[in-house]
Amino acid sequence: MPALSAPDGTQLVYDAYEPRQARAAVLVLHGWSDHAGRWREVGERLRDAGLAAYLLDQRGHGRSGGRRGYLSRFSQLLGDLQAFRRAVRLRTQGPQVLLGHSFGGLVTLRYLETQPSDPIAAAVISSPWLALAFRPPAWKRVAGRVLQDLWATFPVPFSLDTEHLSRDPAINTAYGEDPAVHGVMSPGGWREIKWAQGAVIADGQRIESPLLFLLAGEDRIADAHLGRAFADGLKGTVQVRWYPEMYHEILHDPQRERVFQEMLQFVDAHIGHA
Fold first, then answer.
1. How many alpha carbons lie under 13 Å from residue 218 in its C-beta half-sphere?
2. Does the 3-135+193-271 domain belong in CATH 3.40.50.300?
3. In whole angstroms, how large is the CA radius of gyration of the chain?
């Protein structure tokens, strides 16, 4: 179980899927409440395509350290990703590609806006969490505002309707029964995420890396239409794949092989230029 130390000393754990000779490294960031273990198939699929895949348990998630459901500063996640990139370089030489899903997509986009001096070959953004596609209950919204300064670490339940994750019922059932899915959002965590969502949208023109957006037309968790508008407003090398019938977890869809093929074509087109 490989691990690394974040800049503040927090221990972060990741999974490695390495072919004998890797053409590039893909660094994967999961969504909120989630963990790297749920994305094992993605790691294996990338490895089988000759790409070394590294799946990080983000701070406060899975096997990594940090308080569950809490963020003191969103910028810590950017430092974590930079440290993760350094750790991966010690294992695999060559171009690096970022793959961020949902909350991981938000982290990836903000990282690309703030780290231009350490370029990547390309990034894949799956169902980015730029805003929710649903309105949380009123009591949670009020609690979030009131407790941001009074009790920022208070563990507020943050559960998703599992039927909205994927069109594959087995994926949804496994998520609902997974003890490593923490299902918590603190007022401090919500404050930092809301800040980051606004910052990402405001600073999108800073991104210089080639981007592929994977967006689900039936996403009832993240606002896919906002994601599409954001992608369409960027001026760099940007491709958008819109899957009108798919749910939030596109890479867990019953028809995910089509998504993998399009993602791999994009990665192959850019790692040769890195």
1. 13
2. no
3. 17
